[in-house]
Specification:
Elements (H helix, E strand, L loop, with lengths): L1 H15 L4 E6 L8 E10 L16 E10 L5 E3 L4 E3 L9 E11 L1 E4 L5 E4 L16 E2 L3 E5 L4 E6 L1 E2 L12 E7 L1 H7 L4 E7 L14 E4 L30 H8 L8 E6 L12 E2 L3 E2 H16 L9 E7 H12 L6 E7 L20 E3 L5 E3 L1 E4 L5 E4 H11 L8 H9 L21 H9 L4 H7 L1 H4 L7 E6 L7 H12 L9 E5 L12 H15 L12
Parallel strand pairs: 1-11, 15-16, 15-19, 19-20, 20-25, 25-26
Antiparallel strand pairs: 1-4, 2-3, 2-6, 3-5, 6-9, 6-10, 7-8, 9-12, 13-14, 14-16, 17-18, 21-22, 23-24
InterPro entries: AB_hydrolase_fold, Esterase-like, Mycobacterial_A85_antigen
Keywords: Signal
Pfam family, one: Esterase
Amino acid sequence: MRRSALLLLLLASVAGAQPTRFEVTVAPEAHRGPLTGRLVVLVSKVGEPEPRLQLSPVGPAIFGVDLEQLPAGRVAVVDTGAASHPMSLAALPPGDYYVQAVVNVYEQARRSDGHTIWVHLNDGTQEFFTVAKGNLHGDVQRVRLGDGGTVRLAVTKVIPATPRPADTEWVKRVSIQSRKLTAFWGRPIHIHATVLLPKGYAEHASVRYPTVFTLGHGVPFGFTTDSTRVRNLGRINPVTGVETGYDFYRAWSADSFPRVIAVSFEQQTPYFPDGYSVNSANNGPYGDAVIEEVIPELERRFRMIAKPYARQLEGASTGGWQTLALQLRNPDYFGGAWVLNPDPIDFRRWQQTDIYADTNAFVLPTGPFTSTERPFRRTTEGQPVWSARDLSRFEAVLGSRGRSGYQQEAWEAIYGPVGADGYPKPLWNRRTGTIDREVATYMREHGYDLREYAQRHWATLGPKLAGKLHFFTGEMDDFYLNLAVYRFEDFLKGTTSPRSDADFTWNRPMKGHSSHAWTWAEFVRLVAATVKRGAPAGEDARAWSY
């Protein structure tokens, strides 16, 4: 009888326990008036750096809800019904944690395609939402979680703009408002460029130079004149295979180095820190903006040789896909593409998924009754780090309707159609992984599968690509991107009329996503030599070879 009474008492206490929940208020000094955006609560076991700066698929536990015109002073609740990763709030182990709330603030955009949507809009600067200008966050709090009850958090701070570095004799920064993108979004949209000038640029005032468009981030090739902020001077990074930014500066400024200009772009969209330099139903005409507005303006301002042979493209990962896309779509405009570790360039190998034949992006059937999870990332020894399902769940916490700002949903925004609600239509169901064949077909038919695009247009495209395609990939790419490059190589090797002369360099053994075939100094020398060989008759390279 006593045992039964104790059991009933225990059951009653469990039934009465309240699940853990967060109540979040937004201070008036952080935001006035109704607030629309995405509220994310981050829960970490460590307090430094701030949880918002630890965010990754293997970082803090995260919980997210939409805020839709939240009235000033109203409490926002994050509870067991919130989107979560890597576990639900109810499954969070009891313990002491560091907790922080962040709000990705949305604005209303009335696009020229007739859709009105709510997204985060900025001035084109590449930045993730946890550090983006105008977004909100609170202080880090150390709290006990997992035993139920309510935790109250306050959002009190507005993230300021990151100051742009001042121009120097070597590096110039340019912001160009795109008329085409401004018309699409109904508000001013800018593309920024960072221009690295050669030694003697000011003294040789009549010289025009070849240009390498490096479709990456920051100052091209990591160039810096500040040796105090650089580690391992004089050493090649064993993982990336490139030199330090200061060592590159010493090569760039040497008497015997090729004199070229290098340019990188910033083209942040509401869906990702990069617009991929192509026209997109969801993002707008970034391809037209780059080709028709940005590059001509840069060539006018900085004495670039405004001819195809002198325009060279280089990019890795996202930039690798852009590099190939720009060369294929503009074969008469650019003189060469150096494609490094590109995002999937054959959608039969969207990492480990064939989006045309497979039915599910999360699981790989291995037998009549068995399957295994499709990995999204691995180590260079082949150990899976996280799965496609993991990443989809992670992105679903960061934002609904394709607004996570992360990789899978970035591809959908760039390559895919607009959904009926005005937001990107998903390629697969976020809960089940079931692939939407209509979306896959749209991506192929609109030319975002670059292998299929090149194959479809090879009769006219092939002759214009002679001597222009150069590929490099690590054979243990962290994101399985080498698989699509294999397929692209197979296609090019099988071409006739004309036969492709593209070259492929494979980095092995155990070389991953960040590996390179050359140091940056070696690469610039290689590109300069290629430009000289490809110069039409009558073009004199001696002027920029001082």
